[in-house]
Structure formats: C-alpha cells, structure tokens
Amino acid sequence: MVKCSRCGVNVADSFKTCPNCGNDLSVVEQAPAESNDEVICSNCGEPLLSDAEFCSKCGTKVENNVSKRCEGCGAEVPDGVLFCPTCGTKVKQPPKPANVKVCRNCGVRLDEDTEFCPECGTNFQTGQKANLAPTNSNQGFVDKINIGNIIKPTIVSLVAAIILSILGVLIGFSWVSFIIAIILSVGFFGGLIDNEANAVVSGIFTGLVLGLLENPIIEFCFGSFVAKVYEWFFGSQIILLIIIAILTAYISNVFLKSKIQAIVGDRFSWI
User: Fold this and answer.
1) CA 38, CA 35: separation in Å to the nearest integer?
2) Where are the domains of the chain?
3) Mean pLDDT computed over 91-112
4) What pTM was estimated for this model as a whole?
5) 67, pLDDT greater than 60
6) Is the pLDDT of residue 81 over 80?
C-alpha cells in the first residue's frame, strides 16, 4: 500500500494514479497502512478539529470517519473516498446534507437569514467578530438628558399647570393654586418621561415658566389692580415653584413611574 501525497488515502501498489484524486503515485513512497489522524471535511477538504461537529468553512456536519466496504472487491473504504483504493470501483456516496449555517467561532447553528452569531457576534461571511461597544451602566445624570424626549411632555405639563392654576385662583386658592398646579401636572407627566434626568429638566422648565406667568394669570382672572396687590402682598414664587417642580419630577419618575404608567396605559403613548 502507498499513501497518496495529495489526499492521504492509502492505495494499492498496483495503481499508478490515485483513484480518489488522480494524483501521480509513481513517485510516492511506500506508506504504512495506518490511517491519517488528521480530520478533514468530506465536502470541502477543510482541516477540522478532532471534536468539531460542523465544518467551519462550509457548515457540513462532520461524520465519524467509519470505514465501509467496497461493492466491487469488499475492501474497506474510508469515508469520503470517491473510488475504492484497491479496485477502483466508484464508491456510492450518501446524499449530501443541506448546507447548515454554523458560526465559525463557537459552532452555534444559525438561522438562514442570520449574518451575525447571536452568541459571540461573529460575522458568518467574514469570520470577523463584531465590535460590541460595552454598555455603560454608570451613565451620568447629564448624559441621560435628551431634549427630544422632553419637548412634548413639558409642553403638555405646562399647559396643564396653567389651566389648574387658573381654576385654583378662580375658586379662591390664591397663591397656593400655583403650588398645587405644579405638584399635579409635573407629578403626573414626570412619570411618563423615560428617565429621571429628563423628568427633572422638564420640571425645571415648567416651574420657571409658571412662575413667570403667576402675575399675568392673576391679572387675567381679576384685573391689573388685584394683580398689583397680589404681587405686593405675596411677591414672586419662581424659586419655590422650581424647587417643588424638581422634587416632584424626580419622586414621580423614580418611585411612581410604574404606577402612573399602569394607570394611563397607552393613552399618552404619543408624548
């Protein structure tokens, strides 16, 4: 027996060329009968790890290299050989399994339309691992602020605060009306904002604007004379309203958010 230098199959001495790959055996030295320890893919010839279940190149399932008998002469034929090394009879090959997408890195089977492995992020086509940026669980307060997520809830909260203030002033709550309006409006809509940083910013803006509108609201309800008396007697509550708005927004978003969202459901999903 001689071993083919190209495909590694042991071939009978009578053959001049390898029946498996057509290699010229005239210059091949006598080879021992033991089988090659290297495991290769039966479909594409890619070298495989000894414990591999799928080919890392074509995805073909790796079968145990069990010898079978030639139908022509009865000699043992290694799995994957096309022609019997002893008599040259063509060996019947089992039907080729359908291509299975397997991750080249970790061996996980992939769906047909999957390009990146869900386990390790390796690209199926290139074999390159995706650059996954680590998530920062300690994101700073300022980094959480997103103006785009604040505009709608802030406008709605401010409109609600103005309406509540007018109603409170008309029924006689006086300066307390503005505080109650801030607590109710900011407390409710602050629980619908995505995070506490955005909720606090929204509360600051609502408290500031409502504080600036305090005297105009009094004048709108009772006239300029009453507004002047109110300003002289009570002064401005801008700082107080901002502080109350900050505390209310934070408490609502951190501690009451789930309860508020459970109550309103998807009725305010547009905010």
Assistant:
1) 9
2) 145-264
3) 67
4) 0.50
5) no
6) no
